[in-house]
Amino acid sequence: MTIPLISSAETIAELRDRIRRLEGARQKRGEGVFSSGCASLDRLLPEAGFASGSLVEWLAEVAGSGAETLALVAAREAAAQGGVLVVMDRQEEFYPPAAAALGIDLERTLVVRAVRFEDEMWALDQALRCPGVAAALVWLFGQWPGSRPFVAAASHHAGHF
Question: Which of 3.20.20.70, 3.40.50.300, 3.10.20.600, 3.30.70.330 would CATH assign to domain 8-154?
Answer without folding.
Answer: 3.40.50.300
